[in-house]
Amino acid sequence: MSVLPLARDERADLAALLETLTPDQWNAASLCRGWSVRDVVTHVISYEEHDQRDFLRRLRQAGFRFGRLNEVSLAEYQHLSPAELIDFLRRHLEPQGATARFGCGVGLVDAMIHHQDIRRPLGLPRRIPVERLRYALPFAVTAPPLRGFWHARGVRLIATDLDWSHGRGPEARGDGESVLMTLAGRATVAQDLSGPGSEILRRRLG
């Protein structure tokens, strides 16, 4: 399965949402702790056109602390206005550089998760196309930056609308979007899951 069309469509959907947001919504808090909606969008575009050499440069700037890498990357694009951020995203619907890794899987799943990081606190729900979720769920388990395998340890996660599951232990059930966001470590979304395993996840992620 080619991931590129899925990534392109997800990014186009995100850009379409951003074009509807008010200034207050751009400044509103996202699900990413300490980040506004604008910060999340800036992060999404901050790895485009950057290769391994740029990664090492940023890592040096971060004092070789991986926890500060996003902070350094964010700072390089903080001068862009919302309109410029949208224009940048529109020009990069096809992932380039670091986001093109794993056949554009990084670009797809990163955009999907951050899309929801924006929509959920703004009260703007959507139905994610099934084919995107089917790719994103196993990807989120194994992708090192997301640490889904660690977040979900000791729990059996079940996406009730996709016939998808992962892990062993007490069950935590919910729709595919909620399971994906829980794998990504979003504590507030874990509250949407049901079953004995959901309480484990709430305590762990909270």
What does this structure look like?
There is one protein chain. With 206 residues, the protein is mostly helical. It has helices at 4-18, 23-27, 37-45, 52-61, 69-75, 82-91, 101-122, 130-142, 148-151, 176-183, 187-190, 196-205; strands spanning 156-159, 164-166, 171-174. The chain has a 3-stranded mixed beta sheet. The longest helix has 22 residues, at 101-122. It is globular and about 45 Å long. The model has no long low-confidence stretch (mean pLDDT 92).
Strand order of the largest sheet: 2-1-3
Provide the low-confidence segments as ranges: none
What is the H-and-E element order?
Answer: HHHHHHHHHEEEHHH
Task: Name the structural class.
Answer: mainly alpha
Strand content: 5-15%
> What gap, in angstroms, lies between the N and C termini?
36 Å
Number of domains: 2
* Number of β-strand runs: 3
Determine the mean pLDDT: 92
Give the overall silhouette. Answer: globular
Q: Main beta sheet, described?
A: 3 strands, mixed
Query: What integer value in Å does the Rg equal?
Result: 17 Å
| Discrete helix count | 12
Quickly describe the structure:
The chain is mostly helical and 206 residues long. It has helices spanning 4-18, 23-27, 37-45, 52-61, 69-75, 82-91, 101-122, 130-142, 148-151, 176-183, 187-190, 196-205, and strands at residues 156-159, 164-166, 171-174. It is built from 12 helices and 3 strands; from the N terminus they run αααααααααβββααα.
